[in-house]
Amino acid sequence: MVSMKQKNATNISHIKNSICSDTITNTAIGLISYDRSGIIVSINENAATILGLNKGLPEASPVGKPLTDFIINTTPEKLFEKFLMSASAVRDFQYSFETVDGEKKWLLHDSDLFIDPVSGEEFTQMLIRDITSIKASGINNFNDYNKAAIENITALEKNIMTVQAIADITHDGIYIEDNHGRIIYWNDAAQKLFGYTKSDAIGKQLYKKLTPERFYRSHSKMMEEFTQTGNFPLDGTTREYRAIRKNGVEVPVEISFSTIKQKGRGTRIIGVVRDISKRKKTEKALLEGHQEKLRAITDSAHDAITLTDSTGKLTYWNRAAEKIFGYSKEEALGEKHYNLLLPAGTRDEFKSSMTTFSEMGKSPMFGKTVELVAVKKSGVEFPIELSSSTIKVHGEWSAVCIIRDITLRKRVEEDIKKSLQHQLVLDSLLHISLENTSLNELLQHSLDKILSIPWLNIMSKGSIFLTKEGTDSLEVKAHIGLTDEILEKCSTIQFGECLCGMAAATGKIKFTGSVTPEHSIIYNGMLPHGHYNIPILTNNKVIGIINLYVKEGHNYSAQEVAFLESVSKTLASMIKRKKMEEEKEKLWDQLLQSQKLESVGRLAGGMAHDFNNILTGIIGYGELAYSDLPEDHPVRKNLKVIIDSGVKAAKLVKQILAFSRKQILEMQKNDLNSIIDSMSKMLVRVIGEDVKLQTSFKAPAKAVLVDATQIEQVLLNLAVNARYAMPNGGWLTIETNSVNVGDEFAQHHDGAKTGEHIVITVTDTGSGMSNEIREKVFEPCFTTKEKGRGTGLGLSTAFGIIKQHNGIITVDSQLGEGTTFRIYIPVIDGSIIKKEKSEKKKQAIKVKGNETVLVVDDNTTTRSMIVETLKKHGYKLLEAVNGEEGLSISDQFDGNIDVMITDVIMTGINGWELYREMIKRRPAIKTIFTSGYIDNPIVKNSILENKHQFMRKPLHTKSLLDELQKALKKDFSGDNDL
């Protein structure tokens, strides 16, 4: 059976889930908190498992939803619904229920009503255990089961239970009031002193019941000031009061007040109350001279009671004084009290006041309760609380002192303050994590908060490392108090290197109280110190290290470690969430970029067909006119400019199709080392004399499937950009390496494939790029060059070409530190296929013919240009404006049609359909397909895949004649794609 004290400790931990959100995650007990209306406030993983929520049901978090949505009671009495809203405790209740996915289970159920000490709101804490298997075995004794569950309470919960246990065993009543004067903590001694139970006190403004009527007005005024301003006039003081117990009896009490402020939650009052009834009786007995009665009373007291004469000599020493200070009565009596009880450094002040006391019976400390440091016989110093007053004994002044050892109380107060400070730090971290801050800003804020904790015995110096993605190395992300030299040496640390690396390699805390040989990183001016190195773990994987400096000789502290571990766990969850948010944002940007490229690609592809038809007319008719004019004709010069401009425009269209991945590649097995080596001379001419080219081929000669011309185009574009970034000269380095791309790298790079890749690294020593420019560098039409010097298509073209090769291209750059592009191309199986040089000489192309050619194209300019060009070279021409007319002309023409030249994309019957119909009528006809838009499925899947003759628009007269001769010479062997 789980005791109430253990459950309260567990619930304190749960209430303060901001202290450590993972504290109860691994307990064997399912924990669910819900408010008075039955709405779930929090739920741990074990409870979710018991209720069947870890199977993907429901899709949303159960927090904020009615508990009855997830526990479907199958008992006829529906007892669970009755207990759900009950304000009383439920103990060891067993019942059957059905999970949301229909599984029947048995639960063992305990619940209690609590009040949140922070918000003051009531809630119910329910502990559930799955006893289905136990019920099936017939076992009804759950003591052993409960015992095992209790043992799983985490270290932080035990720490909180220890604080509460200490507070509960002290003889002083301890309470805490919130900024509205409501009780949020009430220990056992306070319950015993005043007669009000915890349920009577928690959440109530109890001072209204405890304060006698004659003092109520002044006390209420003071509390009103506190609730409005947060200032408590009695902070740091101790006062004697009269209080009313629950049974109506007045009791003299002494209350010590202290306050602690919580950011966003106001000020809390901590009150320590002592019943001074016995003290008052003692003072009365002393005044009345009842020595025997006095002795009986004082010897039963827990406080030390002493009497000193006018010279300061002790004349009375009770049993508690013997116990507290260690001196027997015989040793103490006759000694000066300040010499016996006080440390040497504080005795003079007391000694000087004795003259006034002996003459007038006065002292600044009389009538007050003060806190001092005393010393035991053993020499150990400890805190005491001293109350003193004067009496006359036989005509001479004597002092009555009531002394209390407040070591335990101070420890409790310190532990409470530490706990609240702990909570404040974690609350602050959680708060900043919800704001729109970067991960580095979050880590810097976290380090500031850790180093601001006053009770942590650490130096104001430290750093936070994060594991570099896909590596076993750490990178500094936040730091305080580190010199430039330290940062340079520790900017990147390998796992296992120095103390931080050792903690990362083992996943365990590394502590040293001095500089040991393990501290392998040494720097100038290094002073003696030690370290706490705390791993930040997610799923037992080290994702970072908290590195804190301590003074030399500092001892390992379990309390400090418990705090730092809870900070580490909180940071782990926040880092994970921040990375997920950044990854989500990155994926969203990639999606937008992909959609942008796709939209531009569609636009480019659609325009390419029409634009290439126009260029066919410009280039084709220009070449016809150019060839008709004599060489010395002045117009030929102008025509040459028109033709060259048309060719440049055609190349521009080709670039647009390249970045939009709409071009057709001639993929062959190649060795990237050979491609780079063969174009090195050309690159030297491109980059100029003041830029030095360096190549390094570290990759093995493994085959990749590439279009060599397109890879050369990519390298050329990168070289041109590098040249522009180095106006005063520099170095351009091209290097190849072999790498194995893993799952993690592939997940973070859109389109990347796992497996072996050849990486081409292109590095320049130029001006570099800002983050803003680097993020846009692959966007189409984005350029940093001045107007008229760049189209913005170079790098976007390179991006599209590499994507078509199933590879990826990345860029790393910082202002003033140059730029590095990396191109990843996947390796294919098989060795390099070397191109064999043909021994056959190319035969001269016949430029005169008399064969009959049918030209089918719905673009008048293109069709006319083809017809005119071929007529000029002796061919007989038939022309049709579309596929239907082409079939009609064929049917009406009695002679032989040797070749058909047809556009692919036409209204009505397209070029492929025309071809399939035509070969049924004329099986021996040869066909040349043309198109300005090659991404069309017909072009890719039917024409190119089956290796039909294809001409890409814009058409040139020479290429047109070459392809026609090729078609006429081809031996017809039938078609296998009908």
Please explain how this structure is put together.
There is one protein chain. The chain is an alpha+beta fold. It has 33 helices and 34 strands. The two termini are 82 Å apart.
Summarize the structure.
The protein has 978 residues and is of the alpha+beta class.
Topology summary:
Blueprint: H1 4-15, E1 30-35, E2 40-43, H2 45-50, E3 72-73, H3 79-84, E4 90-98, E5 104-115, E6 122-130, H4 132-137, H5 143-150, H6 155-169, E7 173-177, E8 183-186, H7 188-194, H8 198-201, H9 207-210, H10 213-229, E9 238-244, E10 250-262, E11 266-275, H11 277-288, H12 291-299, E12 304-308, E13 314-317, H13 319-325, H14 329-332, H15 337-341, H16 347-360, E14 369-375, E15 381-393, E16 396-405, H17 407-433, H18 439-451, E17 462-467, E18 473-480, H19 484-490, E19 492-494, H20 498-506, E20 510-512, E21 529-538, E22 541-551, H21 558-628, H22 635-659, E23 668-670, H23 672-678, H24 680-687, E24 691-697, E25 704-706, H25 708-725, E26 730-741, H26 743-747, E27 755-764, H27 771-776, H28 794-804, E28 808-813, E29 819-826, E30 852-856, H29 860-872, E31 876-880, H30 883-892, E32 899-903, H31 911-921, E33 926-931, H32 937-944, E34 949-952, H33 957-969
Parallel strand pairs: 24-26, 30-31, 30-32, 32-33, 33-34
Antiparallel strand pairs: 1-2, 1-6, 3-4, 4-5, 5-6, 7-8, 7-11, 9-10, 10-11, 12-13, 12-16, 14-15, 15-16, 17-18, 17-22, 18-19, 20-21, 21-22, 23-25, 26-27, 27-29, 28-29
Instruction: Kindly state the percentage of residues in helix.
Output: 40-55%
Biggest sheet statistics: 6 strands, antiparallel
Distance between the termini: 82 Å
Strand fraction equals 15-25%
Q: pLDDT below 50 for ≥5 consecutive residues: which ranges?
A: 1-27, 142-163, 787-792, 835-846, 972-978
Mean pLDDT rating? 77
Shape: elongated
Structural class: alpha+beta
Radius of gyration of CA atoms, rounded to a whole number: 45 Å
Q: How are the strands of the largest sheet arranged?
A: 2-1-6-5-4-3
Tell me the number of strands.
Answer: 34
Number of helices: 33
